[in-house]
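As noted in the main text, all predictions were made from sequence alone. Below is one such record, for 6682_t:CDS:1.
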Amino acid sequence: MAKFRKFLISINYNRPIVASMDNIKLEEKLRYSASLSVILGSTLPLQETSVSFYNKINTIIKNIQTNNTIAKYVCVYILQVPVSKVLPFVLRIIPNNSENISDVYEIHNQVLEFAAHFKIYILSIGADGVLVEIKAQKCIMQTNTETKLKFTDKLYRNVNDLNSNLKIWPTDDEIRVLINDAYKEANALANDKIILLIKENLTKEFQDGEEVLTKIIEMIRNVASLNL
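Prediction:
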């Protein structure tokens, strides 16, 4: 994370970034790396798989098999500056032998803590449709924080409490993300009193567009009636 912070400083970038993570299934296999002088393919620290002489290889392999520490998955964590021609930055490659929600959540938590320490602002964390990764993200979303997201726009001015509730759940390998506030607005606009107020305030030059407005109102009613 410190290296990535230095990179951001070198390109004079101090805006939010995006992150993504994937826990990929591996072929369970051990192999010896002559360049690193270690046995790769396990979840043990490199110092425990370091080979000082060749006779030690069999001992290390037996230790890995006995403790069931052969890596079955590898977690890849990537940071991306949302600027064209800037390549993704591979933050961590973590071998593991389980696909557990708490383990994935802990990796996210560590990254967010380090990012906060180095004042790196992660805007979003991407993931594929694997259920474990989605549930881990849901755990992050349920974490209470004192700092709230502030939105500033020249047209809408300051919105001090942007409290959109994003619910994520998979259905037939799909991830549907719904914003509750959007449906609240749809319900409000579908209210007869508000619709009547809109119609009464139509100027003459927009009278011809009343038919279009009626269609838009009907669409809003349809969205508001969805039971999601």
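The CA atoms of residues 64 and 70 lie 6 Å apart. The beta strands are 17-25, 31-33, 38-40, 73-80, 89-96, 122-126, 151-153, 157-159, 166-171, 174-179. These features were considered when defining construct boundaries for the mutagenesis experiments described in Section 2.9.
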